[in-house]
Design a protein that fits this description.
The complex is a heterodimer. Chain A is of the alpha+beta class. Chain A is built from 7 helices and 8 strands. In chain A, strands 1, 2, 3, 4, 5, 6, 7 and 8 form an 8-stranded mixed beta sheet that branches. In chain A, strand 2 and strand 3 form a beta hairpin. The chains are: A alpha+beta, B mainly alpha.
């Protein structure tokens, strides 16, 4: 940040705060040195909104998605066309040669001395090779693509391996218990991204390692406290969401009623409508 | 007057010598003493006239030498042989006529079906692309709004959010495969002969 920038910008902004903005603005330190530091919050007109940092933790897909009918048709068509336009491969040439040799053997006037290459050696036909390869393949059993009934277990992160899942947490807010993305209140002296990291780390019973994508929030949601909870100056809360991608696959199983790994289209069964509207914007199910 | 006298003397000597035909060979053992019968000249007088020294000479010689050296270098510079790009060389197998397949017999209905399927596919892909672009635009808008709100709240946090994050890049993620990874799978030891061709320029 250039020093001249602060000098030019600051007075303008100060004018704005005193005249235009009615909502209180969080105080900004005035000296040049303190621009560099984040830790100073001078007392003064505090904003009526409490800041929260939240984390949108995604488990990216582990397995490729199933093809839709048109994709299947198109794939078949492409394979057909490629096959028609291609030349014979080495293996296919060998198969043809082998079959020609076999037909020559069946002839009555077969003279094995006429064969140039194979005098007394053992012949490995292409068909034998194919059989060997098939047997090798059968020996390997891959892991199943879908869990079957395990899909219903919402707290397991191994469900729906073909989609990206988001972590939801059930929390007490006021008097109710609602599902929301893990969030925690902001404390002075930390950036909002650190708040989000703290929110992830403070989840009870969850040992999740995640990579946060960038310092900037990806979305925000503000809500007002009910009238009885509103103290002097505090109107409500503003939640800033940060995106994170889960890095470790192995972790302890989570508590069933507090945690849920949820696809984008299942979100509406869990989240409140207004909250859902804001959250859907940045959760991508691509 | 003196010169004339000397000349006459020389002529008389030479003529007398020629008439006598005496086999007198004047054997000169050194150049200091020439024959008494010839003109008296000293070594400096007999020397080749000295060349006038040109002052710019050494510089010109240097220039000529440099030019010659440059020409030599250019002639010696052979451009290194280019490494062939394996992908651009069509192997001889592709030109082998014995490998051609029988040409496909595509009926009229089949070709119609193929054309219609291709058009359907292009429509499907277009729709998919539009949806993807829309999602991305929506996410970007949400981020912009969030940043604006953060600016209204606190300048410091806004500046902290705008800082570039060096930890995220380089970002590494293993993409989806056809089957999920097995928990306790031991891959067999694979022995292989590396036959890649290494070219040295």
């Amino acid at each position: 940040m250039a020093a001249p920038f602060t000098r030019v910008y600051q007075p303008l902004w100060r004018k704005l705060t005193t005249t235009v903005l009615s909502t209180g603005v969080r105080n900004v330190s005035s000296t040049r040195q303190q621009w560099a530091e984040l830790n100073v919050k001078t007392a003064g007109a505090a904003s009526p909104w409490v800041l929260h940092g939240a984390v949108c933790l995604q488990r990216l897909p582990v397995v490729s998605q199933d093809r839709s009918p048109i994709e299947e048709d198109f794939m078949e068509l492409m394979r057909q066309i490629e096959f028609e336009k291609s030349l014979l491969a080495d293996h296919e040439v060998k198969v043809l040669e082998d079959s020609a040799r076999m037909s020559r053997k069946q002839d009555e006037d077969y003279d094995s001395d006429e064969e140039d290459d194979y005098k007394n050696k053992k012949i490995v036909t292409a068909q034998d090779l194919e059989d060997v390869w098939e047997q090798n393949l059968k020996r390997f059993q891959p892991a199943p693509r879908s869990q079957g009934d395990g899909e219903k277990d919402l707290s397991s992160s191994e469900r729906c391996l073909a989609d990206s899942l988001v972590l939801l947490v059930k929390k007490d807010v006021g008097s109710q218990k609602i599902w929301l993305l893990p969030q925690i209140e902001w404390q002075t002296g930390e950036t909002l991204r650190q708040t989000a990291e703290r929110a992830l780390a403070s989840l009870p019973g969850a040992d999740l390692k995640a990579t946060f994508l960038g310092n900037a929030p990806c979305g925000f949601y503000k809500y007002k406290y009910p009238k009885d909870v509103q103290k002097e100056g505090l109107v409500g809360a503003k939640v800033f969401f940060f995106k994170a991608v889960m890095s470790s696959q192995k972790h302890l199983p989570l508590e069933k009623n507090t945690f849920a790994w949820v696809k984008k289209d299942e979100l509406q069964e869990f989240l409140k409508p207004e909250y859902l509207k804001q959250v859907r914007r940045f959760i991508m199910a691509l | 007057m003196m010169a004339g006298f000397v000349c006459r003397a020389v002529n008389r000597i030479i003529s007398s010598q020629a008439s006598c035909c005496r086999p007198v060979v004047a054997v000169r053992h050194s150049h200091w003493f020439t024959s008494m019968l010839s003109l008296k000249t000293s070594a400096p007088l007999r020397a080749e006239p000295k060349k006038k020294k040109k002052k710019v000479d050494p510089r010109q010689e240097m220039l000529v030498k440099d030019r010659l050296k440059k020409r030599l270098k250019r002639m010696e510079k052979v451009s290194p042989e280019l490494i062939p790009i394996e992908d651009f060389i069509t192997s001889a197998k592709s030109f082998d006529d014995t490998r051609t397949r029988a040409p496909p017999e595509v009926s009229f209905e089949e070709s119609e079906r193929r054309a219609l399927l291709l058009k359907e596919w292009s429509r499907h892909k277009h729709k998919q692309h539009q949806m993807e672009m829309q999602e991305i635009q929506e996410a970007l808008k949400a981020q912009k709004q969030a940043l604006m709100q953060l600016k209204l709240e606190s300048k410091e946090l806004y500046i902290a959010a705008l800082r570039p994050d060096t930890d995220t890049l380089p970002f590494l993620h293993h993409g989806p495969c056809y089957t999920p990874p097995k928990a306790d799978y031991e891959a067999p030891d694979g022995k292989y002969n590396d036959i890649t061709r290494v070219y040295i320029q």
